[in-house]
Specification:
single chain; about 240 residues; alpha/beta; Rossmann fold; seven-stranded parallel sheet; 7 helices; 7 strands; binds nicotinamide-adenine-dinucleotide
């Protein structure tokens, strides 16, 4: 039976690369996004993951789920004191509540087949910058949620892991960085990264593919894999 993977935030960037790699490697893929995807060879569904009912509805009729990738996320770039509670909630609804809702909805189907969940967090879960507090809090929360869900679902044969990317070359990265840094964002990011380059979306997809694969990563659960070209390995005082 062909395994089925659901990927949120599938229309572009890392989510799209995850869909591509899973599709190429034999998965049946269902990509969910708030915007319609370009023509792609896998199934796509339009839903706002911040709307818990719409997200649950988008998953409801799938008879089988082997893999769930919670990837959709939004940024809010503003100082903590300029951020309203509504703006805070809007970020947390996409980045943290939606993964919980999706896991809750998919859990019994994942359990039936011994499936796996991968949550896409960020290096901002581990160390962060000024002016991204709700994003950093949501991504830190996602690492903690991953551990909690892994413990609760291990007995049902479901593994739950996390990937924490560093700077990956996507539209979101360029937009976000342009707001904070003057000069050529790519050059600045390259200089800050020990491997001296941005990551490619496919390099995150490879980690996701590994963590979804019940043969290659069968004894890994509750874990976060950092994929960042060495950024988190360096002391900031160096
Ligand atoms: N690009 C990076 O450098 C980087 C670094 C660390 C972590 N990440 C994480 O990787 C993931 C993907 O990032 P990306 O750079 O590909 O982002 P992106 O903005 O290019 O793509 C995100 C996708 O999510 C969709 N989305 C956003 N809100 C949604 C909603 N409410 N409902 C449904 N879909 C929604 C968007 O339409 C978009 O297609 C995110 O979780 C992000 O936090 C990215």
């Amino acid at each position: 039976m062909t395994p089925v993977a659901v990927v949120t935030g599938a229309a572009q960037g890392i989510g799209r690369a995850v869909c591509e790699l899973l599709f190429e490697t034999g998965w049946s893929v269902v990509g969910i996004d708030q915007v319609a995807s370009a023509t792609v060879p896998w199934e796509t569904r339009v839903a706002d993951v911040a709307d818990s009912t719409a997200l649950a509805d988008a998953l409801a009729d799938l008879p089988r789920i082997d893999g769930l990738v919670n990837n959709a996320a939004v940024q809010h770039a503003a100082g903590l004191l300029e951020t309203t509670p509504q703006e805070w909630d809007a970020v947390l609804a996409v980045n943290l509540r939606a993964p919980f809702v999706a896991v809750r909805e998919a859990a019994s189907r994942l359990a039936t087949v011994g499936g796996a969940v991968v949550n896409i967090s960020s290096v901002h879960a581990l160390a962060t910058s000024a002016n991204v507090a709700p994003y950093a809090a949501s991504k830190g929360g996602l690492v903690a949620f991953t551990r909690a869900a892994a413990l609760e679902l291990a007995g049902q044969g479901v593994r739950v892991n996390c990937v924490a990317p560093g700077a990956v070359d996507t539209a979101a990265l360029r937009l976000g960085f342009a707001r904070h840094v003057t000069g050529d964002p790519e050059r600045v990011l390259r200089e800050r990264t020990p491997q001296r380059r941005l990551g490619a979306p496919k390099e995150i997809a490879e980690a996701v593919s590994f963590l979804l694969d019940g043969e290659r990563s069968s004894f890994i659960t509750g874990e976060t894999i950092v994929v960042d070209g060495g950024v988190m390995a360096r002391l900031s005082t160096e």
